[in-house]
C-alpha cells in the first residue's frame, strides 16, 4: 500500500449516513486486516467530520480502531508519518485508535 505524505483538503457536501456506511463493507485485499483496510480507505476519502461519523458506525459494529497493517502499525502510527492530519489523529484517538 502506497503511503501519502499528507492529507489533501477535500471540499464538498457532507455525506449521508448511508454513503459513509458503504466504507464499512469495502473488501480487503487477500491477507489484509479488514478493519485496517476500511479505516485507511475512510481516512483517505472522507472529510474529518465524515470520518468521525464513520468511526461511530465502525465502533458500533464492534470493529477494532487499533487494527494493524501487515507491518504491525495502527492507522495512527501510519498517519503520524504524514503531515497536516492532526484533526484526523485526534478523532481516531477519541475513538480508541
What attributes characterize this protein structure?
97 residues, Aminopeptidase
Description:
This is Aminopeptidase. With 97 residues, the protein is an all-alpha fold. It is 45% helix and 0% strand. It contains 5 helices and no strands. The chain has helices at residues 17-21, 34-45, 48-60, 75-79, 86-94. Helix 2 (34-45) packs antiparallel against helix 3 (48-60) and helix 3 packs parallel to helix 5.
How much helical structure, as a percent, in the residues? 40-55%
Report the C-alpha radius of gyration, rounded: 12 Å
Helix/strand order:
HHHHH
The low-confidence runs, each spanning 5 or more residues with pLDDT under 50, are: 1-7
The shape, in one word, is globular
Secondary structure tally, helices: 5
Protein name: Aminopeptidase
InterPro entries: PA4642-like (IPR047742)
Organism: Alcanivorax xiamenensis
What is the topology?
Elements: H1 17-21, H2 34-45, H3 48-60, H4 75-79, H5 86-94
Helix pairs in contact: 2-3, 3-5
Q: How do you describe this structure in short?
A:
With 97 residues, the protein is an all-alpha fold. The chain is 45% helix and 0% strand.
Amino acid at each position: 500500500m502506497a503511503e501519502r505524505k499528507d492529507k489533501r483538503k477535500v471540499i464538498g457536501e457532507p455525506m449521508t449516513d448511508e454513503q459513509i456506511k458503504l466504507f464499512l463493507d469495502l473488501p480487503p485485499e487477500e491477507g489484509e486486516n479488514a478493519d485496517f483496510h476500511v479505516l485507511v480507505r475512510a481516512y483517505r476519502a472522507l472529510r474529518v467530520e465524515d470520518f468521525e461519523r464513520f468511526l461511530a458506525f465502525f465502533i458500533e459494529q464492534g470493529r477494532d480502531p487499533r487494527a494493524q497493517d501487515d507491518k504491525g502499525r495502527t492507522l495512527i502510527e501510519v498517519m503520524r508519518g504524514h503531515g497536516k492530519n492532526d484533526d484526523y489523529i485526534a478523532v481516531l484517538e477519541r475513538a480508541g485508535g
